[in-house]
Specification:
CATH topology of the largest domain in chain B: Rossmann fold
Structural class of chain B: alpha+beta
Helix content of chain A: 40-55%
Oligomer: heterodimer
Number of helices of chain B: 7
Shape of chain B: globular
CATH class of the largest domain in chain A: Alpha Beta
Number of domains of chain B: 3
CATH superfamily of the largest domain in chain B: HUPs
Largest interface: A-B, 26 and 30 residues
Radius of gyration of chain A: 21 Å
Strand order of the largest sheet of chain B: 11-14-13-12-15-16
Helix content of chain B: 10-25%
Number of strands of chain B: 16
Number of domains of chain A: 2
Shape of chain A: globular
Distance between the termini of chain B: 42 Å
Structural class of chain A: alpha/beta
CATH topology of the largest domain in chain A: Aspartate Aminotransferase, domain 2
Strand content of chain B: 25-35%
Largest sheet of chain A: 7 strands, mixed
Chain lengths: 395, 365
């Protein structure tokens, strides 16, 4: 008997970690698995594969409001973030990089690396208690020495608490000084309207497995006018920015998923927001001292992030897992050692508060029964986790 | 589940016995990355991954629990302060007493679990009085009842040691048969938080300016003559022979051993081997596995994997302290070590050695 088989039905409320592939994506992906042909080859098989890739690129461009030539396929969100940050930093040769303190580790870690090894002056900008960038802090930071700023990176929406960032204001400030803006839109795509051209950003990260597509494929959408130093050298694929044999099946799956997700976005937004609001309201009715984290006005529709005072997030997660309910503490893992979330700490929470939070993220397969199951389980689970107490905080 | 072969097989046996088992790996290092290359500790990333893989093979849920703060305060800090005071502590007993069968057990029970099962080699049995008795493992070479001698009846009642009835070779074979990839992993022997095994170097670095002294004299036990100096008592152990760097040989040409360490003055007393022999031990902080005896004719074990010594034990201070009279002298026994008291194969209790003496000559220390 396997771990998964121990409970009959899994209530999957961790779509922000990864979401099931949509039928259209599975079909597009599997349809290409048995075709032979390197898209870079000149013969008929190669031309066929190239056609699939380029049609996929066009469909993604159509869905995102960008030009096909602006889509650079990568192995996923982390690579796209690395490419944007390192590629723009090296291409522009200016020392300062500005980002929010609540970026994903796929942004923060490359920035720390650039600071440590490449002389970058990284400034992490504060957010308010809801996790939203303090725009005036960004303005002040830029105006301190705008010429020295190589790029600004601000995520479209936060992966933990779901807060949407004021990207239009970021672009406005950056454009006054001609500074390129990168945004990690991994969580936003399919959840809120994402239009590359209209947003005014210069580079945008997306990944397949968060929008119902395959793992291991994503893209950096980057304006043609923006120079990016490549990280991976080789055969010169993808505008010479990202070498490596092009993964035709994965890209076909990605395109199908993006198309479906963008088409369904408006309807899904309403459906998920209603489910999420119901979930939060009913949890708070059962656990009256539960405190929602995040911005009530500017947020993703499927994110519910709550603090359960007196509980260890890890205890809650384990107890829910034992009942077949899957969620996340939203914290990064270092050798499996749970750390207090840097996002919640940046929002001004204490270590204990940060460690007593859970993220439930809803997605395209979530139904009312999932919310019902969670609401039915949460009361006793919180009670038991409270009895287990909070572990000693880091001194 | 440490990531080693013993806890993996213990978990497998608990599953097979019909228990609903969840695998827990303890994160005990505050900075796991610093131990990454050490590889012999119990807190490396590789060990965590090995434990996870074993849980996968067994089909059980698996989590990492972070007890690094508790471990640091209750085990590492205690280890340091004991050494600073000139004593020689055993951190494994301390960890079992404060972490594995206390903080971890308490959390587990609060979360709805009934017991903690570990890969320790010891046996639990129900006694005639209805209490749980702990006995030495069948495999005396692997027996770990010594480091469990601090457990009380409440703790034993919520413990499972599925390996106590098996020799180690059988456990390794079983691991291989069950497809547990850790079957060939070497046993760990060192103190888990000292990655390179250099206890002296680690202590010197950690204690730094808070070391009790930064040097002192090495003195002959009989004449009081100063034989040399040293750079600090940290790392000296009673019974130690090597590394004293005394230029002059003893008058009788025989090797000299550390007999006593005075942490405040930094004085290290040395003398011949027979001066190490003691037959009276005072113990404090006694812990009892079951009923507290008044007195006992049994055996004591004075270090991990050490010999059994026949002894008479008198219990004092309402069970808080013991006076142990050894039938035959023992050598190199240092304050801070644990004396674990046995009645046959049964663990009766334990105490921390506070002083040793020689009854016959009266030359107590």
């Amino acid at each position: 008997m396997t771990d998964l088989a121990r409970t009959p039905r899994r209530v999957y409320l961790d779509h922000a970690a990864t979401t099931p592939m949509t039928a259209a994506a599975v079909e597009a992906l599997t349809g290409q698995l048995t075709s032979t042909g390197n898209p870079s080859s000149l013969h008929a098989s190669g031309r066929h594969a190239r056609r699939v890739v380029e049609e996929s690129r066009e469909r993604i461009a159509q869905a995102l409001g960008c030009r096909p030539g602006e889509v650079v396929f990568t192995s996923g969100g982390t690579e796209a973030d690395n490419l944007a940050l390192k590629g723009l930093y090296w291409a522009r040769g200016r020392p300062r990089i500005l980002a929010t303190a609540v970026e994903h580790l796929a942004v923060l870690d490359p920035l720390h690396w650039l600071a440590e090894h490449e002389g970058a002056e990284v400034e992490l900008l504060p957010v308010d208690a809801q996790g939203r960038l303090e725009v005036e802090a960004l303005r002040a930071a830029v105006e301190r020495d705008p010429e020295a700023v190589g790029l600004i990176s601000v995520m479209w929406a936060n992966n933990e608490v779901g807060t949407l960032q004021p990207l239009d204001r970021v672009v406005e400030i950056a454009s006054e000084h001609g500074i390129p803006v990168h945004t990690d839109a991994v969580q936003a795509l399919g959840a809120v309207p994402v239009d590359f051209a209209a947003s005014g950003v210069d580079a945008l990260t997306l990944t397949g497995h968060k929008v119902g597509g395959p793992y291991g494929v994503g893209a950096l959408v980057v304006r043609r006018e923006v120079e990016v130093t490549p990280l991976v050298h080789g055969g010169g694929q993808e505008r010479d920015i990202r070498s490596g044999t092009i993964d035709t099946p994965a890209i076909a799956g990605l395109a199908a998923a993006v198309e479906v997700a963008v088409k369904a976005q408006a309807d899904e937004h309403g459906r998920l927001a209603a489910l999420r609001d119901d979930l939060v309201a009913r949890i708070c009715a059962v656990v009256p001292d539960a405190v929602p984290n995040g911005d009530p006005d500017h947020r993703l529709p499927g994110h519910a992030h709550l603090r359960f005072p007196g509980c260890e997030g890890d205890s809650l997660l384990m107890l829910l897992d034992a009942q077949g309910i899957e969620c996340s503490t939203g914290s990064a893992c270092n050798a499996g050692v749970p750390q207090a979330s840097h996002v919640l700490l940046a929002m001004g929470r204490t270590e204990d508060e940060a460690r007593s939070s859970l993220r439930f993220s809803l997605g395209h397969t979530t139904v009312t029964e999932d919310v019902d199951a969670l609401v039915a389980a949460i009361g006793p689970v919180v009670e038991r986790a409270r009895a287990a107490g909070v572990r000693r905080g880091a001194s | 589940m440490s990531g080693g072969v013993d806890s993996a097989v213990a978990a497998a046996r608990a599953v097979e016995a019909g228990h609903d088992v969840t695998g827990i790996h303890l994160a005990l290092s505050r900075n796991p990355r610093s131990y990454r290359s050490g590889a012999r500790g119990c807190c490396t990333i590789e060990d965590s991954n090995d434990a996870r893989r074993a849980a996968d093979v067994l089909g059980i849920a698996f989590y990492v629990w972070d007890f690094s703060e508790e471990f640091h305060e209750d085990v590492v800090e205690d280890f340091l302060s004991e050494y600073a005071a000139g004593r020689t502590p055993n951190p494994c007993l301390r960890c079992n007493e404060k972490i594995k069968f206390a903080a971890v057990l308490d959390r587990a029970v609060a979360l709805g679990f009934d017991a903690v099962a570990t890969g320790h080699y010891a046996q639990l049995e129900s006694g005639a009085d209805g209490l749980i008795e702990m006995h030495r493992a069948v495999d005396h070479g692997k027996d770990q009842s010594y480091v469990l001698g601090v457990l009380t009846q409440d703790q034993l009642a919520r413990s499972l040691f599925p390996l106590g009835g098996s020799p180690k070779s059988e456990v390794r074979e079983e691991a291989a048969r069950r497809g547990l990839l850790v079957a060939d992993k070497p046993d760990s022997h060192d103190i888990c938080f000292i990655a390179d095994g250099d206890t002296g170097g680690w202590l010197t670095e950690k204690l730094g300016g808070s070391a009790p002294n930064d040097g002192g004299e090495i003195v002959d036990h009989a004449t009081g003559e100063v034989l040399g100096t040293h750079g600090g008592t940290v790392g000296f152990t009673i019974g130690q022979r090597k590394g004293l760097r005394i230029g002059r040989p003893a008058a009788d040409g025989r090797p000299r051993f550390v007999l006593d360490i005075e942490p405040v003055s930094g004085t290290v007393t040395v003398g011949p081997r027979e001066e190490l022999r003691i037959d009276a031990i005072s113990g404090i902080r006694a812990r009892w596995c079951g009923t507290v005896p008044d007195r006992l004719e049994g055996t004591v074990q004075l270090r991990a994997h050490g010999a059994e010594h026949r002894a008479r034990v008198e219990v004092a201070d309402d069970g808080d302290a013991v006076e142990i009279a050894l039938h035959d002298p023992a050598e190199g026994i240092a304050p801070g070590q644990a004396a674990v008291i046995y009645d046959g194969t049964r663990v009766v209790g334990s105490a921390t050695i506070s002083a040793t003496a020689r009854r016959l000559s009266g030359a107590g220390r």
